[in-house]
Model the fold of this input.
Amino acid sequence: MLSRAALRSVVARQSTPTALVVARGSASEVSGARDEQNFPRPVRQEPGKVRLGFVPEEWFQFFHSKTGVTGPYTFGVGLTTYLFSKEIYIMEHEFYTGLSLLLMVWFATKKFGPSISAWLDKEVDDVENSWNEGRRDAIKNLEQAIEDEKKSQWRAEGQELLIQAKKENVLLQLEAAYRERVMHAYSEVKRRLDYQLEKATVERRIGQKHLVEWVVANVTKAITPDQEKQTLDRCIADLGAIAARK
Done:
């Protein structure tokens, strides 16, 4: 009965974190993200406290509220005395063999228990550290992947700026080509207009020259020798008059 009660207390204590882990796991699956603050990750359970090497602490706490500190010990000694006195538990040769084995186990526990416990704890810690190391490596890889994705997005934004700059460069080239063609059209039109102006000027000059020559020729033909002589004499007289005034 004592062993069953202790077993039930240990099982009840160990089953509670498991249920919490299952509930937390289902909540994380529903929400999609784990709430580390309200639902921390489960930790490895340590063995419960015992007395006399095998009696759980809960057994003594159960009697403490009803019989005080000595109640569990009194109950254990009284129950053992009752079993032995009524020969319910007979002390045959197997009892002494079990007692000898119990003493040997107790001695081995006291002698080799700490070193074996330390070795087992070290092995458990190594296994736990290996699991945690794998989880840390996975988290580190995921964080690195997130950083790489951020850099890729930043590069993509840079590509958008580069494409925009290339578009502006193409527009500037188109504007320069347009202005060059407009300047070429202006130069060609100006050159042709200058040609027409020069042509008109030359034609007018030639026309004026021919007109003057024609007028002079006709006037010269119209002057008779007497008129020429009279004109010459008048000119000489005018010159003489001008000289006399001076």
Observations:
- The first helix runs from residue 2 to 31.
